[in-house]
Every structure is written in C-alpha cells, then in structure tokens.
Amino acid sequence: MADITAIILTKNEEVNIEKCITSIRPIVRRIVVVDSGSCDRTAEVAKALGAEVLVNELKPFLYAKQFLYGMEHAGIQTKWVFRIDADEELTKESAREIEELCDANEDTDVNGIVVRFEVNFMGRPIHHGGVYPFRKLLLFKYGKGTIEDRYMDEHCIIFEGRTVEVEHDSLHHDYKGLSAWIEKHNNYSTREMQDYFNSLSDDAATGLTSEHDLDAKAKFRRFLRWKVYYRFPAGFRAWAYYFYRYYVRLGFLDGREGKIFCFMQAYWYRFLVDAKIYEQEKKDGSL
Questions:
Q1: Tally of structural domains, the chain
Q2: Structural domain harbouring 262
Q3: Residues 96-136: tens digit of each pLDDT
Q4: Which of 73, 77, 208, 241 is most enclosed, with most CB atoms within 10 A?
C-alpha cells in the first residue's frame, strides 16, 4: 500500500462508485469522497466500501472548486494525492504500477504521475479517433501540486519537479448510459462557453502562460483548442473536428459505436458549445 489519499468527486454515481473504489482500495491509505448532494445511494455505497464522505452541495457544480474543497477539508497527511473520477477504475496492472512508482519516488524530483486510460463508450473500447490512450496527470505530491481553477478542462499541475507516465492502461467506463452522457456534456458545454469568453479577455485563461507545469500533452491540446480550433468559424469547426476524428484519425474503425462517439463529440457537443456562445453574444448585444 502506497502513501496516497484518493479524492473522488461524486454526484449521483451509485452505478459507478463501487468499481472505482474497489480498484484503488488495495493501494491507497485513504479514500475521500466529496459528494455534491447525491439523491441516490452514492454516499451509502462509498461508506460501506470504507471511504470517508464529505458533503458539499456546490451549485453550480464546478469540478475544480469541489476538488479544492476536498483538498482543504480532507486533512491530508499522505505523501501523494490521487484525483480519480467515479467512472474511472484501475486495472490490477495499472494499480500495481502506480503503487510501485509512488513508493520508488517518495524522495525523488518526480512530483507527478500521468495515468493513461482506455475510454469505453456504449460498451465498446474506443481505440481510434485520437482518443486512445487518454492521458491525465492524476497523482501529485501533496504541497507540490494542485488543480487549475477553471470552469472546464481543468488539469492537475505541479509546481516543480517532473512527471512520469504509467505504462499500463486504466479504464474510463461510465455505466450510466447515453442519456447521462448527454446530460453531463450539456453541463460541460455551458462551462466551456464560459471559459471561451474568459479566454477572450485573459490569455492566462487558456493556460498558455501558466507558470506551473501543465503536462506537456495537455498543454499542446489546450493550445490547439484555443489558438487553432476557435480561430475557425463557428459551425465549420464542428464539421472539421468530426472529419478529423472520424476520417483522419480513423474513428470509423471503432464501428457503429465509434461513429456515434465521433458524431456526439463533434456535431452534438462541439456544435452545442458554438450555439451557446452565439446565444451569449446575442444577450450581450455584441451581435
């Protein structure tokens, strides 16, 4: 067991939480669930599995602020902090590797660990379309890192030192189905719209001038989003995004699920963001 406190943010995650906690429990000292007022059995299931539960009904729910609340109120005394979502789970191989990396780097300049995921959509692993592997910096030494305070696309960052990447895949599998995916991404689109307008007046909102060490791949993706993607006209950029993911990055090789995934990510989610940007511009009188 490594010297890790895991923090899981939840809102009606009864369907997912058991697999997440069960997968990390063998390698972490503490599991802290920060619940935003779930109306299902999320808290009950988490407690039964040995997790501590903090309740903070944050409205509107902003992931970064909720995670920072957990960092502040959990009384962390471990060497490492592990941010993991309820719809994410470790495999036996990735759990063992994370444990070994944390133990081996307690006194080195490695202050962050990047975890790679295989994304599952509608019951099928997505291996094309530029999705696999999906990487996130999820573990950092307490006091050596934090999370960006953003509306959307928030990442863990470290203040100094370097990161290493886990070689084995973990799993990103939301068992709540397509309707829940749509509801979640509808909320995401509002938050991205807010980040978009912030980026117009403050270049630091894009993270491109951050003094902290954003993971290099995450930094590059953010550059493409704010400095390339949003330079294209609204509407066209959603089509271009679909074309890139489905045809250029071979999303069609993931079958019908791959087509639905690329379509929903581009023509639905990305176009919805553009529609909300347009709506906000009309309200502001800039159109």
A1: 2
A2: 178-284
A3: 999 999 999 999 999 999 999 999 999 999 999 999 999 99
A4: 241
